[in-house]
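Obj: model holo form, ligand = HQG.
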Amino acid sequence: MEKQFEVQDNQDAGRKLAFLLRHDSNYDFPKDGWRTVENLVTECGYTEEEIEEIVATDNKGRYEYNEDHTAVRARQGHSVMVDVGLKEMEPPMFLYYGTSDRFYDSIMEKGLLKQSRLYVHLSSNPSTAKSVGKRHGGKTIVFRVLAHDMYEDGFKFYLSANNVWCTDEVPSFPCQYLQLVEE
Ligand code: HQG
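Output (holo structure tokens):
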């Protein structure tokens, strides 16, 4: 089979690995989300060393190897239907969500939606949320999520192995769990 692309440089290779491990609907992921190193080498243009390097140096700890080092997976962020064993946890009082101000009205109306991903991703501090939000362009806004109130009201929270909080949704109505963080 033809290679899907040639790996250009490490940053590019890292971005492509994120896609290949989280969103590639052409790959038949097992339920627990592992993609074999062999597949990444033979079909996707990586060397084993490049994969090692990306997993070891990723700035957010996005990836992990299985026990015998034959497969890798992303620790969160998927749109493909997998279960990577996120830990269900009691969240802190507040979590944070950054985005562009062009989504403000819709978020106030519909709450935070997971869109194409399996979960809404929340950060444990406002500065991380701000950098997440910056990816969406425009003016960045940060919401404080009253996570512990949600938890007490029965919403479930999960923590990924690289410390990203995940939940199914943050409703805006009828309860007020979302507060805009003023600069
Ligand atoms: C928008 C990155 C309208 C939301 C980050 C955002 C994160 C709504 C988009 C992780 C909405 C989702 C996830 C509503 C949500 N109306 N728009 N009601 N609710 N949205 O990229 O949280 O670096 O899927 O404003 O660091 O930005 O890739 O989610 O624009 O941890 O590892 O829906 O991805 O991690 O966008 O980012 P995304 P996100 P990595």
